[in-house]
Amino acid sequence: MTDTRKDLTDRPELGPPDAANADLLSQVLAQIRLTGDRVQSRSVSHSEPLELDADAAHALVVAAGALQFGGGAEKPLVIDTGDLILLPRGPGTARLLGSSEPTKIILCRFWFDPYSLRGMISALPDHIHIRHEEGAEWLDGMVHFMMRETTDAQPGAALMISRIIDLLVIRTLRTWVHLGHSSGWLSGLSDARIARVLKLMHERPMQPWRLDELAGAAGMSRSGFAERFTELVGRAPLRYQNEWRLHLARDMLARREARVGEIGLRIGYTSEAAFSRAYKALFGHPPRDEI
What we know:
Blueprint: H1 19-30, E1 34-44, E2 57-64, E3 67-70, E4 77-79, E5 84-87, E6 95-98, E7 103-112, H2 118-122, E8 128-130, H3 132-150, H4 157-178, H5 192-203, H6 211-218, H7 222-233, H8 237-254, H9 260-266, H10 272-283
Antiparallel strand pairs: 1-7, 2-5, 2-7, 3-4, 3-6, 5-8
Helix pairs in contact: 1-5, 3-4, 5-6, 6-7, 9-10
């Protein structure tokens, strides 16, 4: 990703984000892995429901007309021409209806890697809405490129579609942060005190941080820091640190940098058995299965 600086939330009371925090956003987003398998164009009539796979995530762009998104007693959200809506956990109980005749959409289907930092995906909202005027500078060109790839029968087309969806999702999240709408762990990057601690954790992941040290770096009390960090990031500070280390270990194992026991020692475990137990608790299988 390039030029992440401009895509961080700039809140006057916190001061402008610096390049280090921009790099941190790249590091965090790099841990979100997904697989996309479909980009297609669809048309729906007025009041016709748009059926989506319940077990998949989706990104939709309205090419013409408008969609209504919502359910229950709440007023439905209108997704206008050129707008994008991201559904990280699928439609859930909400309904998508055509609100004009006809409504044309571009639909992307994908799945998040279940072993991405768990707090990241679970802390995302049910939907993220990017209006056309907020994302036109990148969305228009990306949509054009996606539609070209859907008709490309050359070898590698499936991989291209997956990579394009990956880029679309990450760019959507960056824009969401920049607009100041973020919640969960992304909000941690727009809170100067929590972002400072996240930066320390990511730069020095093998250091055995204590809670009082992290609170001191944030300039907060232990209890106040722990509460604020957990509220924004979705994980307690030391739990987040441990999961970040285990994700780094997973990358080391994939690259076969060293033996399992050596990697466990590198990330701070005193024995291979302790490392294997923690790894299995997070990923569902022992580290040796990655080799």
